[in-house]
Hints:
By secondary structure, this protein is of the alpha+beta class. Helix content is 18%, strand content 46%. β4 and β5 form a beta hairpin. It is globular.
Amino acid sequence: MTGAGRGRGRRAARLALLLTTLFAGTSRQAAAQEAEPTRAAEAEAVRRAKAEALADAPPPNKVERAFGFVESSRLLSRIFNPPRGWFAQIGGVGEGNGFTLGGGYRQPTPAGVLTLRGLGSIRRSHLFEVELTRAFLPREAGFVTGRVQRRHEAAQRFYGQGPDSEFDDKTSFGLSATLVDATAGVHVTRWLTGSAGVGYANPDIKESSESSSVPPTQGAYDDLSAPGLFFQPEYVTSHVEVAIDTRNAGNPRRGGLYQAQLRRFDDREGGAYSFADMRIELQHYIPFWNLSRVLALRALAQHADGLGQAQVPFYVMPTLGGARTLRGYERQRFRDRSLLLLSAEYRYEVNPFLMTAVFYDAGQVAPDWSDFALKDMRDNYGFGLRFGSSNAVAFRADLAFGGEDSVRFIFGFASSF
Length: 417
């Protein structure tokens, strides 16, 4: 091939490459132009579907509008837990004291947040408390709390010790105490907290407010079967606690709470009733279907042991039975130095303000953890309703089966756990 022929060949090749590039570019542009209307049409279709769904949805009724107002205005938080000022409180003296109502006043001061609180129940129980909490360290990671509390629980129950105590041996007593406590703690991370404290307590057994219908413990038991019945010493107390809390809210639907607490009670009047107490509680929440279903699991283990030859007073032993432990049995139905409780709840959201729940509890008490036996496990099952919001359970109603009664009705102003 001559030089002129090679030149014409190279020009022809460049022309072919140019035409190919222009054709490819034109093809991609055409394809993009064809695709864009398709995506736009899809987006328009979704928008129209949403608009039609909203148009077809029924308007909220009065109850839903009322609940919506309560949720959006944070009305419950303003009434029951404001950062300052007056507040109301339902419950809080302890289980078995009947409907309890009261309130208090909270005021930030240069020394910390001061809270005054007073409660009374229909069973003549009461509680008065002064608390001062001061935060320190960057991001308020550290805290110190001082508390003075006077309380009287007028309707405590005692059936004897151990898993084989008889229902017909039911008795009642009242328990008063002045408690002084100072606790310091640090939020090591958002989910890890450690704390420790010291205090003072002077328990005092009184006559029960229901002694006319339930025999008094003082007349049915002696100091051998109910240690500490006729003498209650003053105590110097100390405690240390570690808690891992990854729960998402006050009415949790995911995460968990895993905490361990050690307490020591030193008898200042001879040492006959000095004891130590260990409590481990594990809670875990497994969500399903975008948090609208929750499997809530709980395990609780507790053991109290006398120091040396000392005894553990019966009125501070761990108990099973009641609205927050073994729900098919009466409150404080079983009592001993060791306790084991397992609970599971399947919670189903009906709407943002109502959940239903199916639950199962099993547990037992024994003199020591090594004495636990499968044959001594007591259990129950049931279902219930929880009214509230994502932040808290305001009211709970449960029906429990499988205990010593054919059915037990349980009402409360907080979640079971």
